[in-house]
Design brief:
The protein contains twelve helices and 13 strands. By secondary structure, the protein is of the alpha/beta class. The chain folds into two domains: 2-158 and 335-348, Glycogen Phosphorylase B (Rossmann fold); 162-331, Rossmann fold. The strands form three sheets. A seven-stranded parallel β-sheet has the order 3-2-1-4-5-6-7. Strands 8-9-10 form a three-stranded parallel β-sheet, with helices on both faces. β2, α2 and β3 (62-64) form a beta-alpha-beta unit.
Amino acid sequence: MLKVNFDVSGLRGPQLTGIANYTKNLISTFQKESELQLSGTYRLSRFKYRNDIKKFLKLDNISPLLPLFSNKIDVFHGTDFWVPNFGTFKKVVTIHDLTFYHEDLYDTNFTKYFQQRLENMLKIAKPDHIIVVSDFIKNEFLERFPAFENQVSTIYHGADHFERQEMDLKPMYDFPYIATIGMISKRKNIENLCKSFALLEQTFPDLKLIICGASGTEGTEIIKKIKENKLAKNIIFTGHISDEVAFNTIKNAQMLVFPSLYEGFGFPILEAMSLGVPVVCSDFGAMKEISGNAALCANVTNIEVFSEAMKSILSNNTLKNDLIQKGIQRFKKFTWQQCAKETHLVYSNL
């Protein structure tokens, strides 16, 4: 029986986000099998979050990451861009995106730090295999690191953790709206979305745009600029919200809009599809790959084009219903069972 240890350092905070969801759901799916002996370790820098980690993950064997444990496992899976530079065990690392190589979207200090971190990990820790979460990321990674061509696999995330028991879905808002979700940042392209929405509301004056997500320093400046440009008349910024509120907001929206300039995967697209909500998203990054033919993908840097894409769903019920049905079927293709099966195969072939 293979002994596999996972880096669970990212399981912290009041709610789980993308990488933490990946870690939790992959391990939880493996726990339903008996073919692997599982354990979890967290980096010493995350020691103060150990109670959060144990709250989110029902795994008996969770401990700090120390060199002493290296002879007790067969495989170490770094689920968050990192594996240790010690140990005789095999090393698998998951790379979710390469946003930090896009210096037009981030602060230079951020990009340089994470570029160096990744490059050092690849050079010094020498992972035996690399998992990426979309072909888009695989291609981008190999353009930068062609020496790893025979050590990279695309394994899609599952999305069936979005399947929930029916809860009270009484709408929170008594007006029609479209919604977007994600931390407000330059990468999420919220300013251009607001400009596109300003064109849309000329045809649909009663429609509102609800922007769900925390802001931080960068987001606060973006919101300030939107308000200064008088784009916020029918726009609601919710700030950070719970999973339950996000679920309700998306479920009752006319559509989900996802105008990001870069994504390695794009969980919100599949979440909306699981709820029977049509999606208009960017055609950048992995979003077109993940959504398939089940969403309208448009150039989000062209304000008029993106506005027209949103308008087409609001004005064409046949198109809207077609996207809803295609979305439900598309969502079903992304399961954690399949993700775990393909990941297990990686371990076995090391």
